[in-house]
């Protein structure tokens, strides 16, 4: 690997970004986050962030029912 080769960083978004990507209300995703059932979710202090790749893959597989 050369020094100038970039390492891909994960695509991280907010609840708002995730809701917009699926066209669902933010309240639906906030409720899932409170129960710990939001795929790709992690917290930084009080902020909720979402690994968008993991989230969208789970949504496509039917993991947000």
Strand order within the widest sheet?
Answer: 1-3-2
N-to-C CA distance: 42 Å
Largest sheet: 3 strands, antiparallel
The helicity comes to 40-55%
- Taken as a percent bin, the fraction of beta residues is 15-25%
Helical element count?
A: 3
* SSE run: EHHEEH
**What global shape is seen?**
globular
- Oligomeric state of shown chains: single chain
Low-confidence stretches: none
| Total tally of structural domains | 1
The gyration radius over C-alpha positions equals: 14 Å
Give a count of the beta strands, DSSP E runs of length 2 or more.
Answer: 3
Q: Classify the secondary structure makeup into a structural class.
A: alpha+beta
Average pLDDT for all residues: 87
How would you describe the overall organization of this protein?
By secondary structure, this protein is an alpha+beta fold. It has one domain (12-60). Helices cover 40% and strands 18% of the residues. The protein has helices spanning 15-22, 26-34, 52-60; strands at residues 12-14, 41-44, 47-51. A three-stranded antiparallel beta sheet has the order 1-3-2. A hairpin with a 2-residue loop joins strand 2 and strand 3 (47-51). Helix 1 packs across helix 2 (26-34).
